[in-house]
Amino acid sequence: MKSLLLTFPISFLCFTGLFAQTPVVTNPPTDTLFVQGAPVVQNKSLILKEEKTVKFYLNGYANAFANSSYYEPCAECVEFLDTYKSALTPQASYGAGLSLLFAPGNWVLETGVDYALLKEKFDYTNTAGVVYHSDNKTSYADIKLTGGYWFWRSKKLCSFVLQGGLVYNRLLGASGLVNDYYSPDNVVELSASGKLRDNQLSGTVSSKFIFLPQSRFKITFEPYYMGSLANVTEHQYPYLELYNRLGLKAGFIFSL
Q1: Contacts of 6 (CB under 8 A, 6+ apart)
Q2: 246 with 64: CB under 8 angstroms?
Q3: For 163-197, b where at least 16 C-beta lie within 10 A, e where not — what string?
């Protein structure tokens, strides 16, 4: 009986110690499982942006100008020329044109055709009191070839082309009156006077201002000067005459 009582406490202590030494695991370790699926392929289109350098431009414009003349009279013709000049008053003249510009870089080559109408008012009273009045008109086809440099071409707001060259002036027609050199008290039709040459040559310089140069449609303003390099009058006429034009062209440029 005594041995039975001793055995019970020892068994209890051993049983209790066994539970005390065994830790309680609340989150047992687990293995991570990776599953490889099939690859996903996405098809997207590739867009390439190509910068295109425009080389050709079409320029259309209207033209307003003032015309003045330089005269070289013979010694016997000074009085006659003074009478003619006192009877003549230059008027505002105008025209229109179309040109093609080639500009692979900043250097520019331009060729085109202009129509120009020169206007003058003729008023003369002879010694008998007869009054002559006419609105003189002279028309030309101007074929030009110019070259220049395009400044600030890459700007967004404004750029300009400084250029110069030659112009062939072809007389299209003339109407009005002039003093008759062989009969100073009378007048003669301008077209029958033998005064004007059919073919002339001029030099020109200009500055073409281009607004919105990066857009396909651009606005232009071009102040210019054109002066005769050869006489506009026939050599047998009493005096030689050179034209000088100072004007402004306004229009558009379209990138081709």
Answers
A1: none
A2: no
A3: bebebebebeebebbbbebeeeeebbebeebebbb
CATH class of 56-255: mainly beta
d(CA 212, CA 216): 9
The CA-CA-CA angle for residues 113, 115, 120, to 5°, reads: 150
CA-CA distance, 80 to 70, in Å (whole number)? 15
Q: Other C-beta atoms within 10 Å of 254: how many?
A: 12
- Give this prediction's pTM: 0.75
Residue entry with tokens 């027609």 = 173
Amino acid letter, 127 = T
Q: How many helices (H) and strands (E) does the chain have?
A: 2, 11
pLDDT digits (tens, 9 = 90+) for 189-240: 998 888 899 999 999 999 999 999 989 999 999 999 999 998 888 877 888 8
Q: Which tops the pLDDT comparison, 251 or 234?
A: 251
The 8-class DSSP code of residue 34 comes to -
Backbone angles phi, psi at 135, to 5 degrees: -100, 100
